[in-house]
Amino acid sequence: MLTSKVAKRYAQGLLEFTTESGQTEAVFSEMKDVVKIMSESADLNKFFLTPYVDANKKTEIANEIFKNFSPVAQNLIRLIIKNGRESQLKNVAQQFINKVEDINGVQRITLTTATQLSNENIEQILRSTNLVNSSATFDLEVNVKPEILGGYILRVGDQQVDASVKAKLDKIKKDFQLN
């Protein structure tokens, strides 16, 4: 997913501020909560995207939802809403999380399979490729998409290994069309 420049800039500004004030870990945890809340609540997303609700009402609702957050996180959320960027709130939070994880050396790994796999199978897939640094910590996200038919798609950072049956069938189909 492409992330907007706006989200990257807000996240970078937040990172610089929290680094100077020593609040990076606390805000990191809160930004994970923002991503979780925004991912789970379609109604909240619709509310923030509604153009006829004014910024004051959106700020009031955000203050209630995020009332247990630190002043830094609350001020960021209010600033985003005040500037009319509430549609980017989740992206800003995710970009901040990504930046902090990059600093801490955490690898982001996405594994897509056709069916749910056991932990042993997941570990075997991760060990079978040289993309995964075994000594580094990683954040693993496992997705199940039956449309890949079998195999797996492993994405580590910006690199990807597509060992899915669908990809192999598409390659065979392309080869037949060329010949």
Summarize the structure in words.
The chain has eight helices and four strands, in the order H-H-H-H-H-H-E-H-E-E-E-H. With 179 residues, the protein is an alpha+beta fold. The chain has two domains: 5-103, Orthogonal Bundle (Peroxidase, domain 1), CATH 1.10.520.20; 105-178, no CATH class. A four-stranded mixed β-sheet has the order 2-1-3-4. Strand 1 (107-113), helix 7 and strand 2 form a beta-alpha-beta unit. Helix 2 (24-40) crosses helix 6 (89-104) and helix 4 (55-65) runs antiparallel to helix 5. The mean pLDDT is 89.
- Please give the largest β-sheet: 4 strands, mixed
The figure for the number of domains is 2
Q: Structural class of the secondary elements?
A: alpha+beta
Spatial strand arrangement across the major sheet = 2-1-3-4
CATH architecture label name of the largest domain: Orthogonal Bundle
Strand content: 5-15%
Helical content stands at 55-70%
User: What is the N-to-C order of secondary-structure elements (H for helix, E for strand)?
Assistant: HHHHHHEHEEEH
What is the total tally of β strands? 4
CATH superfamily of the largest domain: N-terminal domain of the delta subunit of the F1F0-ATP synthase
Using the coordinates shown, work out and report the CATH topology of the largest domain. Peroxidase, domain 1
- Compute the number of helices: 8
Unreliable spans: none
Shape, principal axes of CA atoms: globular
Whole-angstrom Rg: 20 Å
